[in-house]
Amino acid sequence: MLNNDVLRSLRYTLNMSDNALLDMLNAVEPDLDLATLRSYLASEEDESFVRMEDELMVGFLDNLIVSRRGPSPQAAPPTELPLTNNTVLKKLRVAFTLQESDLLEILDSVSFTVTKPELSALFRKAGHQNYRLCGDQLLRQFLKGLTLRLRPETSAV
User: What does the angle CA 99 – CA 10 – CA 71 come to, to the nearest 5 degrees?
Assistant: First the structure.
């Protein structure tokens, strides 16, 4: 899934203004301006669309964790690049303090059935024998379900 899609979805889910989003991204890339942010938020068909780099998305997700949970007493290990859907899912799980039951409930709310073993395989290390890649559809449905959970008064995009 494109980083831009994740950014767009989280912006909607958290009901963030351009300025609030820009503040979170400026902590990662201080030279980022509003025009560049809007090019990240534009649809792929739009001529102003610019693909968001993995480093910027990792920084955004890390800042999201800090903003929602506070700074960690321990330094977080560096995130491996290129960024995968599994890593995005892990960081969102931490940011929103979600347990396994919460994840299953979120996916169930959008009629996307995942078993506990399938879910735990997504959070394993990449070399583990039971590791499974998180597909775009699962991440997209998770973001949709997260929106329904955090903004129940609106329908998810």
Answer: 60
Residue 124 has pLDDT above 90, yes or no: yes
Is residue 87 within 8 Å of residue 133, measured between CB atoms? no
Beta strand segments in the chain, E: none
Write down the H helix ranges in 96-155.
Answer: 100-109, 116-122, 136-150
User: How is the chain split into domains, by residue range?
Assistant: 3-150
User: Where does residue 49 rank: exposed (0-12), middle (13-18), buried (19+ CB within 10 A)?
Assistant: middle
Q: Contacts for 30-36 with beta carbons within 8 Å, 24 or more apart? A: 32/56
Angle at 93 between CA 90 and CA 97, to 5 degrees: 145
User: In terms of Cα–Cα distance, which of 47, 39, 54, 48 is closest to 8?
Assistant: 39
Q: Which two tokens stand for residue 16?
A: 């963030």
Confidence (pTM): 0.91
Compute the distance between CA of residue 122 and CA of residue 43 in angstroms, rounded to an integer. Answer: 28
Q: Cα separation of 81 and 96, whole Å?
A: 22
> Which amino acid is residue 107, in one-letter code?
L
